[in-house]
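S.,

Sequence below, as promised.
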Amino acid sequence: MQHIHDDKELFAQIAQGSRKSFDQLFLKYYNPLISFCKTTGCEENDAEDAVSDLFLDLWLRRTTITITTSLKAYLYAALRNKINTYYRNNKNITHLPTDYADQLPDSTLSQPDEKLFLKDRTKMIEQIITTLPEQTKIVFLLKWKHQLTDKEIAETLNKTLPTVRTMIYRSILYIREKIC
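The prediction came back faster than expected:
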C-alpha cells in the first residue's frame, strides 16, 4: 500500500471512496484519539466506541464533510463533540485517569536509575497535572501528550490562540513551581 503523508490528499481520496486511504487514516489516528478520549475521563471501552463511531461517521459522511481546518484538528474536535454528547447522556465518567502511557521507550535510557528517575518524575508531573483546572489540564495534555500545535488546540477547543498559549505557559510555570 502506498502511504500518503499529506492528510488533505488522504481525505480527498477517502471522499472518492478509497478504502485503503481510509484504513491508512484509521491506523494513523486511532491510538492517539483513544488516548485523547481517555484523558477526558472515558473508560477504555467507551473510548473505543467513541473513536469507532467517529470513523464510521467520517466514512458515511465522507462526500459531504467539508474540512476547513487540518484533518487532525477536525478529528479531535469531532471526537470532543462526541464526548460532550456522551456527557450529556448522563454516562458516569471519571475524570483524568492516572495511568498514562509511557513517555519514552526503554531503549532511550541506559541506566536503571535513569529509568527509575524518569518514571518517578513522570508520576510526579502526572499528579501535578491532575490539580490543574479542567480546561487548562485538557489544553496541557493536548500539547504534551498528543503533541497538537497551539493552533490545532485552539481550533479543537474553540478557544483563541492567545488563550491557548497563556494556558500552556501558566501550566508549565505551575508544574515547574510544584516540582522545585
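Confidence is low (pLDDT under 50) at residues 91-109.

Coffee later?
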